[in-house]
Here is the input.
Amino acid sequence: MIEAFLLPYLMNMKRLIFAAFTLFLPFGVLAQDTASTAGYRDYTTAVLWQQHSGEFRALAFQAYNFARLSLVPKIAEASNGKKNCVVVDVDETVLDNSPFQGNEIRNHKIFNQQDWANWTSKGIADTIPGALGFLTFAASQQVETFYLSNREVSEMEGTLKNLQTLGFPYADKEHMLFKTTTSDKEPRRKALSEKYNILMLCGDNLSDFSNVFYREGKNTIEQVDAAQQKFGTQYIVLPNPMYGDWEKQFYKVDKQSDQDKANARIEGLKTY
Ligand SMILES: [Mg+2]
Here is the structure.
């Protein structure tokens, strides 16, 4: 039992100890935290939205529902003797990498190549909603799927395991068009179109569709406006709030510091 008369004294002691703790002990921790978060690209909300919002799922379903509706007449139109295919990107188009992004955030990182290779080697990504249903439907119509991705060839095994586990059609080496020399997807699209009718392209990044977006120095917004009839019919766009080529416009110089990038993002904001 603590004697009643001792209580005020003990309370004061408690406050003193707490004050000392606040002043000295956490200082290093706070300083480290501040240093590591200076210029930090915080996309926690984006990852949470992809992982937990109904809207993300609904938009993905909407995209693939449109894909299915648009595919049927395209099959009927294609009559030049070539086989038919659809081209899909992999990351954030058929596979959901948000757990990797979550992992990076928890570890105060933005993107670490070794962490990425570790993640893809596990082959445990979930599917983007609607992707499996659409590609299974396409396969039932004798439309093949090609997976056109900028994953490295070294990531092939993990990716195949992932796609096969989820039951994706054409999950074999012949249908994986991974990055070898360039991240530019145009040469791979071109080579494929010599043998196949590419009926449709699905991606979360406009570069998954054509180089007129981002890669040819044109105004991407104007190019999107010019191509507006193709979205939902020829180009199927999946939502990706986490990353994309769209962000590069803010980073004019190579090897900018994280702080410079953070400043450039603030400058890029539209205000009133
Ligand atoms: Mg992608």
